[in-house]
Amino acid sequence: MSDPGPESPLAAALRRIGDRWTLLVVKALLEQPRRFGELQRAVPGVATNVLSARLRDLERHGLVVAEPYSTRPVRVEYRATARAAELGGVLRLLGDWSARGGGPELPVHALCGTALEVRYYCPTCHDVAEDDAGVWL
């Protein structure tokens, strides 16, 4: 059996957050902290056992913290961490990608009405970075 080599950054990210429920849970927690039942309502269709497993995984990867609000019985509220907040841009990019395929309309520039595009921007050089070499994937 041959060595598959190092895991790509994209493969590593997908291993951590690459299923439907995980991203929807993160989105719900980026909106506001929530208790378990609130999360179930915010992510319609997710089974209790699946939600529990995703929350454990997100905690293990440092994307969510569980803060107790009751000790008897133990009850917690889930909060997105700063690390999870970094996923907000990724979720917007996924939404943009979906919108280009016939989903909801893209956000537009208020001044001229042109559909907005997401780009990597260097605040030091004031340059838009292009991914010609595919280094981010």
Mean pLDDT: 85
Amino-to-carboxy terminus distance: 25 Å
Shape: globular
Corresponding CATH superfamily of the largest domain: Winged helix-like DNA-binding domain superfamily/Winged helix DNA-binding domain
CATH class of the largest domain: Mainly Alpha
Structural class: alpha+beta
Helix content: 40-55%
Tell me the total number of β-strands: 5
Question: What does the main sheet amount to?
Answer: 3 strands, antiparallel
CATH fold field value of the largest domain: Arc Repressor Mutant, subunit A
Number of domain modules = 2
Strand content: 15-25%
**Low-confidence segments:** none
| Rg result | 18 Å
| Architecture per CATH nomenclature, i.e. the level-2 architecture of the largest domain | Orthogonal Bundle
The ordered string of helix (H) and strand (E) elements is HHEHHEEHHEE
Protein model, in words:
The chain has 2 domains: 9-85, Orthogonal Bundle (Arc Repressor Mutant, subunit A); 92-129, no CATH class. The chain has helices at 9-17, 20-31, 36-42, 48-60, 82-85, 87-100, and strands at residues 34-35, 64-71, 74-80, 120-122, 127-129. Helix 2 (20-31) packs across helix 4 (48-60). It has 6 helices and 5 strands; from the N terminus they run ααβααββααββ. The strands form 2 sheets. A 3-stranded antiparallel beta sheet has the order 1-3-2. The longest helix is centred in the C-terminal third of the chain and has 14 residues, at 87-100. With 137 residues, it is α+β, with helices and mostly antiparallel strands.
